[in-house]
Amino acid sequence: MDKIIEALHTLGVEVAYNSRNDLAINGKKISGNAQCNKGEYTIHHGSLLYDMDFSKMAKYLNPPKYKIESKGIKSVRDRTGNISDCLSKKWDIATFRQKLINEILKKDYQPYQLTVKEELIVEQLAQDKFRSWDWTFGKNPAFTMVKAKKFPAGFLKVSLNIQHGIIQNCAFHGDFFSYGDLNHLEQALANQTFTYETVKQILIEQKANQLFYQITIEEILACIFE
């Protein structure tokens, strides 16, 4: 995210961190970011609002009420802005995108060009896996309980499928950052009795305090059981 800030500064946009995963111009959010860890791999992605039609955004985005209230604003529109409004010269989106890429790459990085063989492999993987119904929808279990809580480090949602007092499935979601793959913790909780003591023991054994960024084991337990 520092690279994005530096590049935007070079283009004349005075942007700064607004939270651990948001960038803002004069308090107006123009970028949100998220991160996922799977084994040895980490994917970090973010968005940039360049010339957004806010009437459409307000129609399709419906954030939890606590997020609006916690920021002291009335709506999504009140807290978002466009990069294009802050430029001395307004470029079309393609020009802005290329200028931003050039600024990011010019110092430390070189773009990698996929070979024809690699492009075919990527396309085949997309077709066989990532565009499939099973990948998008089929892996969502029918959870019977969803608990959520807002912490300073982010929003945590825990989905649980419990049958006869036994955790069948468990999944952690939210806008918090994690230090590792949460799948191992989710698997460790499966087939365990749904009691405070058992869940706490699993969280300790799996070192959950080292997986969630600035969210403690006690806070996770509070989210699940309170």
Automatic annotation (TrEMBL):
Pfam families for the chain: Lip_prot_lig_C, LplA-B_cat
InterPro entries tied to this protein: aa-tRNA-synth_II/BPL/LPL (IPR045864), BPL_LPL_catalytic (IPR004143), Lipoate_protein_ligase_C (IPR019491), LipoylTrfase_LipoateP_Ligase (IPR004562)
A GO molecular-function descriptor: lipoate-protein ligase activity
Pathway membership: Protein modification; protein lipoylation via exogenous pathway; protein N(6)-(lipoyl)lysine from lipoate: step 1/2; Protein modification; protein lipoylation via exogenous pathway; protein N(6)-(lipoyl)lysine from lipoate: step 2/2
Alphabetical keyword list: ATP-binding, Ligase, Nucleotide-binding
EC number: 6.3.1.20
Domain of life, per lineage: Bacteria
Sections of the chain in a coiled coil: none
Catalytically driven reaction(s): L-lysyl-[lipoyl-carrier protein] + (R)-lipoate + ATP = N(6)-[(R)-lipoyl]-L-lysyl-[lipoyl-carrier protein] + AMP + diphosphate + H(+)
One CC-aspect GO term: cytoplasm
SUPFAM superfamilies: Class II aaRS and biotin synthetases (SSF55681), SufE/NifU (SSF82649)
Record's keyword annotation contains tRNA-binding: no
Keyword Ligase: yes
GO BP term, pick one: protein lipoylation
The protein's name: lipoate--protein ligase
The organism of origin for this protein: Enterococcus cecorum DSM 20682 = ATCC 43198
